[in-house]
Design goal:
single chain, about 260 residues, alpha/beta, six-stranded mixed β-sheet, four-stranded antiparallel β-sheet, 10 strands, about 35% helix
Length: about 260
């Protein structure tokens, strides 16, 4: 694995509630993510996973501490980094090809070249027969494949993914997990993936960052020493999953105690 790509040092984030009082969303978060690593941020609702992702992606800023990418402080979104959300974010008036080539179009890549690149990534996600279709003609899983192809087409250094498969049915979700794992093995992009699904985290990640709420913080960082492709019913997989489940359950129990 490569050098440190993202360095998060003592990060804190506070929000002002409707009553005007300040509430801590994150406190004392320290984390290093290496170049080419697939890291899952795992935790219950309210633990600050998405908040941390948004700050690393440059959409928000810490109220304390700092986030560095390639040694430089994150000051805003960067075209070398892309974010994939749960709602796909496709342009309904554009075809699959038009959506995938959009980022290249913004970069000023000539049409013949950008269409060639876009078709390469449409093929990569298995949608070559649907290049001329519009989003409304596609299933949810197919739309998420288009979003993934669009993200990859601009050759980003980092991909931030915020529960991208959360709205999909179970079988489609499994297929998309297999797809992103396969593509990661081929392209080795640095990926930070937010999820609250333990199986998903164990299936995808090199390391799992287990977060706990009130305020959000890193509770544990767990290695996933299982080769790829991963077999969900294999002994190594189930052993790691059970370990993560026990840790997750402990965090959830502490959260309930806090609420009581």
């Amino acid at each position: 694995m490569g050098k440190a790509k993202i360095v998060i040092e003592g990060v804190e984030k506070s929000f002002q509630n409707k009553a005007g009082a300040w509430q801590e969303a994150l406190t004392g978060v320290d984390l290093e993510i290496r170049e080419g690593e697939f890291v899952c941020l795992l935790g219950p609702s309210g633990c600050g996973k998405t908040t941390l992702l948004n700050m690393a992606a440059g959409f928000d800023h810490p109220t304390g501490g700092r986030i560095l990418i390639d040694g430089e402080p994150v000051s805003g979104p960067d075209p070398k980094h892309v974010t994939i959300f749960q709602n796909y974010g496709l342009f309904p008036w554009r075809t699959v090809l038009g959506n995938v080539e959009y980022g290249l179009e913004v970069q000023g890549v000539p049409r013949p070249e950008r269409q060639e690149i876009a078709r390469e990534y449409i093929d990569l996600v298995g949608l070559e027969k649907f290049a001329g279709h519009h989003p409304h003609e596609l299933s949810g899983g197919m739309q998420q494949r288009v979003a993934l192809a669009r993200a990859l087409a601009v050759d980003p250094e980092i991909i931030f993914m915020d529960e991208p498969f959360g709205a999909l049915d179970a079988m489609t979700r499994y297929k998309m997990q297999e797809e992103i794992s396969r593509i990661w093995q081929e392209k080795h992009k640095t990926i930070i993936f937010v999820t609250h699904d333990i199986d998903e985290a164990v299936y995808l990640a090199d390391r799992i960052v287990l977060m706990s709420p009130h305020p959000g913080r890193v509770k544990r960082v767990l290695e996933v020493p299982v080769g790829r492709p991963r077999e969900r019913t294999g002994y190594d997989f189930t052993t790691i999953r059970d370990k993560v489940f026990r840790e997750f359950e402990l965090v959830h129990h502490q959260d309930l105690e806090f609420q009581i």
